Amino acid sequence: MEPFKIKVVEPIAVTTREQRAAALAEAGFNLFNVPAALVTIDLLTDSGTSAMSDRQWAGIMLGDESYAGSRNYFHLEGVVRRLTTYRHVIPTHQGRVAENLLFTTTVKPGDRVPNNIHFDTTRANVEHNLGVAVDCVVDEGYDPVNEAPFKGNMDIAKLDRLFAEVGRERMPLVMLTVTNNSGGGQPVSLANARATSAWCRQHGIPLFFDACRFAENAYFCKQRDPECAGRSIEEIARAFFALGDGCTMSAKKDGLVNIGGFIATNDDGLAQRLSNMLILIEGFTTYGGLAGRDLEAIALGLEEVLDERYLEHRVGQVRRFGERLRAAGVPIVLPVGGHAVFLDARRFLPHIPQPEFPAQALTCALYLEGGVRGVEIGGLMFGKPDEGTGEWSWPELELVRLAVPRRVYTDAHLDHVVDVCARLLACRATIRGLRIVQRADVLPHFTARLAPLGGLLA
Ligand SMILES: Cc1ncc(COP(=O)(O)O)c(C=O)c1O
Fold first, then answer.
1. Contact 212 CB / ligand 1 (< 6 Å)
2. Which of 46, 112, 219, 403 is the most exposed place for a label (fewest CB within 10 A)?
3. Is the shortest distance between the CB of 47 and ligand 1 below 6 Å?
């Protein structure tokens, strides 16, 4: 059961099919353009959508809004130092700014940045600095039916191959994303983080964690890895961080807040360069684009997220959601990840070819059928035309991510989503693909407009 009581409630939208059809057309068949007031169950993201605790709301009232040296900053700094072992704690208003600071400071044109799988903003920030983002996850990370326990692991042989190709000078850092969001929210094992760290040390390359879901990753380690079984979540998390030189963090996930992030590192020189850049784009080093009250809520959230009873419910709720979908015959990525269930659109809609965006078509159908909002992680997000030939390259996976906000929905809400998926499965032959009408070059999925090629969505 939920390890909390519900103290504040918010009504959810109930809409008609006609309203949803009109909203989809108006939105250019892109759920990012649909007003939240027209969404019944919003599984677009687990980012910034958490319900804060009474303690965090109380902390908001203790915000010290001094320009410099706010006491909330020192609270946050203390919590992050204890948890990560990193000396320098630089707040940012969200994770992608931490990435922006890191890559503008370290990446030169032509550099390669390996990661298990880059999240979309991470990839975009590498590419914005004319670097090349290289995904080096183990092969099973691309196999949606392989039930290996640590499908987010880095493939060290792939790092070796990349290094042999480009050498030390072209690899400014290695990133490791825990859990691996774009690969299904799959965890990374402590042994793999250790092996990645050893590889980085051997080659003199810094290792940074993309730590958005560090606590969920630590919980999986505790469940699945005998080495971690008897340890607290905090001990496991600290063991990970101690293997790296720093981390970027979107606190909108495991920080249990609606806005905020940070970058932390032990590298004094880098911290200085990051701080200089921070002042240019975010603000002074003790607030980084956030209010003092936001810093306080993050500090408290980072403490709360380490509670094992919370994590047991959190990861358990997502697992049960996946199990019910599986029992209904809905093809999902296995095993179920920490923050989301990923529908496998290739198997759900095998009749839609990748150039017709099967995962985006499924995302639209979920909304039309039941007011459920998920997000496409497939050809619309990661496919792109070659600058010279115009020929498209496509990602391995066509997924619809149903991300579960933390402490927001009950199992009954998720049952509605299971029903919607089961109904669509029964009429899947009527779902047809989409074509692009308008597409930006950077992070195209946020603003693209599409049109249906017939069938249910037309
Ligand atoms: C793995 C990962 N890295 C980075 C980010 C970017 O964080 P933000 O949305 O706070 O910019 C996200 C957000 O979803 C993420 O999941």
1. yes
2. 112
3. yes
**Alpha helices for 383-443 (secondary structure H):** 411-426
What is the amino acid identity at position 428?
R
Written as six digits, the tokens of 10 are 């918010």
Tokens, residue 395: 């990602």
Separation of alpha carbons 115 and 91, rounded Å: 23
Residue 94 Cβ < 6 Å to ligand 1: yes
179 lines ligand 1 (CB under 6 A): no
Distance CA 62, CA 292 (A): 8
pLDDT at 182: 84
Beta bridge partners of residue 305, listed in sequence order: none
Q: Which among 240, 150, 235 has a CA at the least distance from the CA of 194? A: 240
- Residue 112, helix vs strand vs coil: strand
What was the pLDDT predicted at 19? 98
Q: Which residue has the tokens 């059928």?
A: 369
Q: Whose CA is nearest to atom 7 of ligand 1?
A: 95
Q: How far is the CA of 256 from the centre of ligand 1 (A)?
A: 13
Write phi, then psi, for 147 (nearest 5 degrees).
-100, 30
C-alpha count within 13 angstroms, C-beta hemisphere, residue 347: 13
Q: Which atom of ligand 1 lies nearest, measured to the CA of 96?
A: 11
**What spacing in Å lies between the alpha carbon of 3 and ligand 1's midpoint?**
26
Q: Find out whether the beta carbon of 92 lies less than 6 Å from any atom of ligand 1.
A: no
Q: Is ligand 1 within 6 A of the CB of residue 119?
A: yes
Averaged over 197-225, what is the pLDDT? 98
Half-sphere exposure at residue 308, Cβ-oriented, CA atoms within 13 angstroms: 15
252 lines ligand 1 (CB under 6 A): yes
The pLDDT tens digits of the residues spanning 335-380 come to 999 999 999 999 999 999 999 999 999 999 999 999 999 999 999 9
Task: Specify the pLDDT at position 381.
Answer: 92
Residue with the two structure tokens 């600095």: 129
193 vs 180: CA distance, rounded Å = 13
68 backbone φψ class: left, alpha, beta (φ>0; ψ -120 to 50): beta
Distance 97 CA to ligand 1 centre (A): 10
